[in-house]
Amino acid sequence: MHNPLTTLPFGPRTIILTAILTFIAVLPMAAQNDKGKTVTYKTYIYTSDELGSEISKLNDQRDSSRGYLGDLFSAAGHSVKGLAGGYVTSFFDMGVNAIGSLITRNRRLKKEWEEAVKKENVFQTRISTVSEMSDFYDAPSFDGAMDPKGMRFDGIGCLRMDGNDTLFYVSLHIDRTKLYRIINHSKFELVLDTLILSPKRSNLPNTQLNIPYSFEERKDFTLSMDITISSSWMNEVVQLQKNVELGQFNINIPVDPSLLGADGFLRYTRQADAAPRYKVTGECFIVPRSYMGFRDEKENFKDSWGTGEYKLSIDLKESCDVTEQYRANWKADYKHRKEMTKKNLSLLERTWQVVSKQDWNEITHSWVITTLQAPADIISNDFINKLGLE
């Protein structure tokens, strides 16, 4: 199967895996559509060592106090990251698809069938950080809270694999044609570089029953993503700005079956400097730096601002509709579903538990957010430990 990392539109400017967010969903048993296997989402926060230089080329060079103070702040910042530890949170989620309504008799059968199918036609999940990501910039600033110098954040990617098979991949980078917006308005935009997806290997139909995706039964497959970046910071008059949304990006991609390859996958890679096929709407302010006054070894006090902390959340949604052919055959399908529901009622009534952890990996220099979603009855200390959720 295609490896997405071999076709990423990265140049030497990009360092991959500076931060990794991992979402793991253990789905119920359904052999024919692989829903019994562990599904892993990884969300990458790309960084660039050269982005700051590119921005500086569009702006007059500004004098900045560096030397001793800059080196001291830089060293302190990296040492703190190395000491940062993760933590575990957990909660119970009862919101699993309830197909058990099919065995009730107090509604008309067709309405029951339509309601069940409507639920199956939407899969949604949220992937988010547990705490702030560090170092939107590579060093503190002595010029101000919105100084873009040394900006390292360069985009976002999201990957889902099954073993060695790539089932879904999307990559977005800062739009290099609009860097002037950072200089003029302290805002940046993203552009979609790479996309790999397949309706048949998606999370639809979103059901614990053994129902695979079929183009004879489903149509209008659409992928959408809402990406939100927020931040908390302290300003120079000691006012805390907490969990302020800085911006949001939206992607909405209807999949044309005629664009799928022989293996059922849509693969798109934007060529350098080419106009993107799929539009990313929205914009985001650069992350404000927190005020951090400093007194040097000579007792000179200086105003300074940090390297920027921020949070990220991704609302990912897959949706589709039913074909007229499938709707016309609802009676036979209802009967088939009813039989499967009776056999799998215990699965449908299971409670699911979510466990999350975030920590800093000093070896790979990456943040790792791991979120495990699985039936509560299989969650155990041993199971959590095997996944690194100590």
Tally the helices: what do you get? Answer: 8
Residue ranges: pLDDT <50 for 5 or more in a row?
1-38, 61-107
- Identify the quaternary structure here: single chain
Rg calc: 24 Å
Tell me the fraction of residues in β-strands, as a range: 35-45%
Mean pLDDT: 75
Q: Considering DSSP H and I runs of 4 or more, what fraction of the residues is helical?
A: 10-25%
Properties at a glance:
disordered N terminus; 390 residues; elongated; 37% strand; single chain; nine-stranded mixed β-sheet; alpha+beta; six-stranded antiparallel β-sheet; 8 helices
Polypeptide structure, described:
The structure is a single chain. The chain has about 400 residues and is α+β, with helices and mostly antiparallel strands. About 20% of the residues lie in helices and about 35% in strands. It has 8 helices and 17 strands. A 9-stranded mixed β-sheet has the order 3-16-17-1-2-5-6-8-11. Helix 3 crosses helix 6. The protein is elongated. The two termini are about 35 Å apart. The N terminus is likely disordered.
